[in-house]
Design brief:
The protein has helices spanning 2-22, 29-32, 50-72, 80-90, and strands at 40-41, 44-45. It is an all-alpha fold. It is rod-shaped.
Length: 134
């Protein structure tokens, strides 16, 4: 639907530009509209000229198409700008480097010495104490 409106708007712009370019200059321009031309409407003489009517029709159609495209084309969250933003955030090369804190040194608690009157575990095996960290 959006593509249809885009094509129609472009065609209407081309037609409007054609009608504007082939019009005969009526003299005065902007200064003439303040000079007392009583039979003017929005700066152009009222006449039955086909070119002038074509200009007004093309301008009206362009205005209507522009307003209708704004009203009828859905404005969901699925547009191109949001897709590009999400890709930019998810791209690893585009993210700023994050500062990482150095890991804290791991300290192991020394095992408590066994009381002197405690017997060795069954089986006669004892586990050696871990070496102290330097």
């Amino acid at each position: 639907m959006a593509m249809l409106f885009l094509v129609l708007i472009i065609i209407t712009c081309a037609v409007l530009a054609f009608f504007v370019l082939i019009q005969n200059p009526k003299g005065g321009g902007l200064a003439g509209s303040f000079g007392g031309y009583g039979n003017q409407m929005m700066g152009a003489k009222q006449s039955t000229d086909v070119v002038e009517k074509g200009t007004w029709v093309a301008a009206s159609v362009l205005l209507a198409l522009t307003l209708l495209s704004f009203i009828l084309i859905p404005h969901g969250g699925n547009n191109l700008n949001e897709k590009l933003r999400s890709q930019k955030v998810n791209t690893p090369g585009m993210q700023a480097p994050q500062q990482q804190a150095p890991p804290a040194p791991v300290q192991q608690a020394a095992p408590a010495p066994a009381p002197a009157n405690q017997e060795a575990p069954a089986g006669g095996q004892t586990t050696p104490a871990p070496a102290p960290n330097k």
